[in-house]
Specification:
The complex is a heterotetramer, with two copies of chain A and two copies of chain B. Chain A is of the alpha/beta class. Chain A folds into two domains: 184 residues, Rossmann fold, CATH 3.40.50.970; 127 residues, Rossmann fold. Chain A has 13 helices and 14 strands. Chain A is globular and about 60 Å long. The mean pLDDT of chain A is 96. Chain B has one domain: Thiamin diphosphate (ThDP)-binding fold, Pyr/PP domains (Rossmann fold, 3-Layer(aba) Sandwich). Chain B has a five-stranded parallel sheet with strand order 1-2-3-7-6, with helices on both faces. Chain B has a two-stranded antiparallel sheet with strand order 4-5. Chain B is globular. Chain B starts with 18 loop residues before the first helix and ends in a 22-residue tail after the last helix. Classes of the chains: A alpha/beta, B alpha/beta. At the A-D interface, helix 12 and helix 13 of A face loops of D. Bound molecules: thiamine diphosphate (TPP) (2 copies) and magnesium ion (2 copies). One magnesium ion (MG) binds next to strand 4 of chain D.
Chain lengths: 328, 339, 328, 339
């Protein structure tokens, strides 16, 4: 165990996998010079160790970053493509959905597409409408894609390693605000299985199911709620597809109440899939309707008082939980 | 069929003494032609479905290029991919089964015509999204470069496709990383029902490639000898480490864009006039003039017909896939399933 | 009233709006020659009447079809851009989401973006993985977009007219299999309001909520179910954003049972949003859990027996309804 | 600041007798420079947030181009848009309020620096997605053409952006429809922290434009007179119905890519050396040599400083927007809202 920043942990994951497997490589804009203009250290030192053939600084060509990753995956390598943010990822939606996700199936299993595409999500103060989106729900809707949304440095490392070893295309969605966050990371070859949730807090009154940074915010809200005598169980899904139905259902069977907070726009967000599934399959054990709490259907504004209206905070989560417990 | 035929250039340089080699290519072209006729018929007869894009009239491009490739080389194709697949060595019976959606199809019936692929011969797939083959081909070539392998990648694109953004991104990228990539633009003059020239600015595909410092050669794509010659030279350069090359092949799509296309957008007589330049008749004349007996030529045509007829029968006789196969070859298909 | 094909009805809608308002124009690939290679008559005769400046046959440049539509909308015209299918629409997801949907908000109301983008959806026999998708759920998740999914020729006409008159960007999703379908279309200036559902069949046992072609399939299933004594109310949403909550809730309050059949992939489909909303807000009136029925998370295969496993048919819908009524 | 300065070319032709005109441009350049310094400071002081992209060193391009435009002409900008907005006539106080996220901001605080826009002067928006301005600019020009209006559209793109697909699509489209469009490539040598040349094949932006038959001119973008001259000529051609034109302006970004950029990727001394060619000092010398009194020049600089200082104070004093405004300017924001 060592305490480290999320961005250091994911860099270590990538470096370890590149050492382990010579077919692993990475590509993206400003990868080899990124330290210059951003604060994230995700790629620091990699080009020095692995050379420019395997740590590829690309032109500003999102279609090709994604398309080349697909082509290179099919041709026997394991690319880790970085689209920097899911907002830019929309520029390469086609290559991800129509190619990466479908090739294995469409060609009857003749090929696999072992690639990882990194698409950062989340609100970062002041980045506004075009740089704050969280569209994990899109990729969950697409057959063939695995979608990973880690919340801690340890999971960032362990899940990136699992993603690189996965033979199917993985969308790896880091939250921008987490890169600088610190956490304990197990040493050695720490691999976290895809599709397994973790329980951030045990509780008996109400289950919160969340992912990415919102899982930590839910935990913060739960700790606060404990002071009012509300005992919340917090599940961090870690992977939104496949999601850990077993863990979620077990918790809901125990508490009978579910709140699904999410940073994404609530309408059509991944929380809807969770809520619909729980409502359908656990109808009889529910003591209260399944409740979602997500962002309004509004682009992210720039000014702070407006941004604060559109982003979901631990305080909002706590208030929603209280209301569910009749303590609003 | 052809009455008056355009002439083929004599093969240049070290390829001059090659009638036997050219005969082999002629046979492949005949096989493509027959396959395409059958593909169309399969649609008419209801054995296949969706969009069937024939490459009749464009056989010389597929064959002239792929002849110069090795089995380990890879190609990315587009929606009009049957010819590319056959030229690269795919089995016509498995392909026909794929069109029929049957067991034994190249993709087990999951892909159909528009997604014809045979990875065992380096044919990495026809594709329904224009220009994506370029970026994927670039990636395949980058994999080759990273692994230090001795093989090249070919990408086929249509003329209309050269107006999509990813095409240019791919050119720039291929040159920047000095990739072992041959891009072949099959310029048949049309983008679906639209005359490509009308929606294309500047001097065309080769000029565009050169703007990225990618050497580009324009050839008569209906002249097998010219395509073979140019492709051979460009591929030799790529193998020699000279980076990406571009081949612009002028050709013509003699049939509709897809099987149900009535060609209403063409001037009367255009299709018939253009038929005179179709590549199979031209190379057949050249072969006859260069010592291949007429019987061998007609025999080759007959053999192609017979092979495709056999493929047709095999496809017709092949069983339909087990419906449960719908849920294989996929990571996690969610729940619940009906049926 | 006159009986006509869906594709003729939408062509008439466009022609009438182009006559009414000189700033309306349309663009897309093969628009002026489309009759040549497709069976749809959506644009027949338009270039002859309005000229090539207003009926624009474009290069194969999806980014620019969408981006130019946005720019032209902001600059005082009303473009109707055709991306031919939502599969190709993924090539222009960025321009739709990051520009069209956000401009009004991001620039504080300085501009409006009155455009329509047509993106056909749905399975058509044999078109396989890259030409059969239905991703209306993506656009519902995006703040700023209106999403219209008509099922009948009359609604095709009336809603396209409403879409063209709307001052915000509208994604107009026609089902490929509907273009050739015939229906009665009111004559005159037939405009259907955005966001209003229509009830295709009255019933008291169970509510089916659907949209696009699936609404007709649900109706067919309901007619069949009537023979087994199951009386189904079928609601055709017509618009999936905004959706007609009032009409849906009124029906569910009456029947207490909801089935949401959809052609799209069930996981993360728009049905999840409906189901989650109904489950949360009408928990107490539900006699059975809200049930979704959508496609498995599988690309569309080509071979008929496989395709039949992945597409949702009226028979599947009827079976699901019977199961809900305990008559499986 | 500048000690040794590069010289500016003498203004050519009918623009020769223009010191007063150039003086006006000089003033606008000073205003941009001061605005950019303040924008950076606002980030450092925590009044603004997100990514602030300064255009210090590139003022001559914005001003040289926009001077030749009319208020009814439109421009599409990119992420580095402050200078373009000011050059097109946007009010610096409203802009500063926007950076501060306050009432009275050009977009009421909803957009911030990266989305600076002032539709009242034809500035249709800075933009956070590279190259989208090209396709939107094309569309704006098409609207002009459809409506038969007498105005033109300008689009600013960076050098790095010329590797994105939509850039080429836009060039082709603009030429095909003969649109009244000027594309200005501000080539500052860098794409974020990457030297653009390393990731760009071929002869560069102008060569690429010419591949689409779009006339392209390359100028020293730090030479106001050269930019003014070239932009004036190209815009005259556009107004004259000659279709799209391309201006490739060589310049330099003297500050970091964004405010928090430490410029670690640059060679030591590079930034300082390049400062000698910065455009404001150069044109100031020319003005002095051409009869503008030194006092007037220093007065202009002081006035710019004062105007920006006043804008800063006004922004600081302006109220924050009512949180409820988060839910205006949007079609239907769904339910429920919290808060
Ligand atoms: C991205 C995308 N846009 C549009 C289409 C529809 N489409 C299929 S083929 C075609 C024309 C292609 O023309 P060209 O590139 O010249 O190839 P050809 O069909 O002539 O072989 C079009 C527009 C598509 N498949 N993909
Ligand atoms: C589509 C897209 N990809 C990546 C980015 C991130 N990004 C912002 S500015 C920039 C560099 C742009 O370089 P250039 O075009 O030369 O403009 P400059 O910043 O030098 O003015 C990058 C990569 C983005 N905003 N949009
Ligand atoms: Mg063509
Ligand atoms: Mg630059």
């Amino acid at each position: 165990m060592a305490e480290m920043m999320f961005s250091d942990a994911v860099r270590d994951a990538l470096a370890e996998e590149m050492r382990r497997d010579r077919t692993v490589w990475c590509l993206g804009e400003d990868l080899t010079t990124a330290g210059g203009s951003t604060s994230a250290s995700q790629y620091d030192g990699l080009v020095e160790e692995f050379g420019a053939k395997r740590v590829v600084n690309t032109p500003i060509s999102e279609n090709t970053i994604m398309g080349a990753a697909v082509g290179a995956a099919v041709a026997g390598t394991r690319p880790v493509a970085d689209l920097r943010s899911c907002d830019f990822g929309m520029c390469a939606a086609d290559e991800l959905v129509n190619q990466a996700a479908k090739i294995r199936y469409m060609f009857g299993g003749q090929a696999r597409v072992p690639l990882v595409v990194r698409q950062a999500i989340g609100v970062r103060r002041g980045l506004a409408a075009q740089h704050c989106q969280s569209n994990e729900a899109w990729w969950v809707h697409v057959p063939g894609l695995v979608v990973i949304t880690p919340a801690t440095a340890a999971d960032g490392k362990g899940l990136l390693k699992a993603a690189i070893r996965c033979d199917d295309p993985v969308v790896f969605m880091e939250h921008k605000e987490l890169w600088g966050a610190k956490g304990e990371v197990p040493s050695g070859d720490h691999v976290v299985p895809i599709g397994k949730a973790s329980v951030l807090r045990k509780g008996k009154d109400l289950t919160m199911v969340a992912w990415s940074k919102m899982a930590l915010d839910a935990k913060a809200a739960a700790d606060e709620l404990a002071k009012s005598g509300i005992d919340v169980e917090v599940i961090d899904l870690r992977t939104v597809w496949p999601w850990d139905k077993e863990a979620v259902f077990a918790s809901v069977r125990k508490t009978g109440r579910v709140l699904i907070p999410q940073e994404a726009v609530q309408t059509g967000g991944f929380g809807a899939e969770l809520a619909a599934t729980i409502a359908e399959e656990l109808h009889d054990v529910l003591k209260a309707p399944v409740k979602r709490l997500g962002a309004p259907r509004t682009p992210m504004p720039y000014a702070k008082p407006l941004e604060d209206m559109v982003r979901i905070t631990p305080a909002h989560v706590a208030a929603a939980a209280k209301a569910m417990m009749g303590k609003a | 069929m052809a009455t008056k035929k355009a002439k083929s250039a004599a093969p240049a340089g070290d390829r001059a003494n090659a009638p036997q080699r050219i005969l082999g290519m002629f046979k492949t072209m005949c096989l493509i032609r027959e396959f395409e006729e059958a593909a169309h018929q399969s649609y008419v007869d209801g054995f296949s479905a969706g969009s069937i894009h024939q490459s009749i009239g464009q056989e010389a491009v597929a064959v002239g290029v792929c002849t110069n490739m090795r089995p380990t080389d890879m190609i990315h194709s587009n929606h009009r991919g049957h010819g590319h697949a056959i030229a690269k060595g795919a089995d016509v019976t498995a392909m026909m089964k794929e069109l029929f959606g049957r067991v034994g199809g190249t993709s087990g019936g999951k892909g159909g015509s528009m997604h014809i692929a045979d990875f065992s011969v380096g044919m990495l797939g026809a594709n329904g999204i224009l220009a994506d083959g370029v970026t994927m081909g670039v990636g395949a070539a980058q994999a080759v470069s990273i692994k230090g392998e001795d093989r090249i990648v070919g990408v086929f694109v249509g003329d209309g496709t050269t107006n999509r953004g990813p095409f240019y991104e791919g050119l720039n990228w291929a040159k920047v990383y000095h990739l072992p990539l041959l891009i072949i633009c099959e310029d048949n003059g049309y983008a679906s029902s639209t005359v490509t020239k009308v929606i294309t600015a500047g001097g065309g595909p080769a000029v565009r490639a050169r703007a990225f410092d990618i050497p580009a050669v324009t050839v008569d794509g209906n002249d097998l000898l010219a395509v073979d010659q140019a492709a051979g030279e460009l591929i030799a350069k790529i193998r020699n480490g000279e980076g990406p090359q571009f081949l612009h092949a002028l050709t013509y799509r003699n049939k509709g864009h897809i099987s149900r296309d009535q060609l209403k957008y063409r001037a009367p007589g255009e299709t018939e006039e253009k038929w005179k330049t179709e590549p199979i008749g031209r190379i057949e004349s050249w072969l006859a003039e260069n010592g291949i007996p007429a019987a061998e030529l007609s025999g080759a045509r007959a053999e192609a017909k017979a092979r495709i007829a056999a493929a047709w029968e095999a496809a017709k006789a092949a069983p339909h896939p087990d419906p449960k196969n719908a849920f294989t070859d996929i990571q996690d298909n969610g729940a619940p399933h009906h049926g």
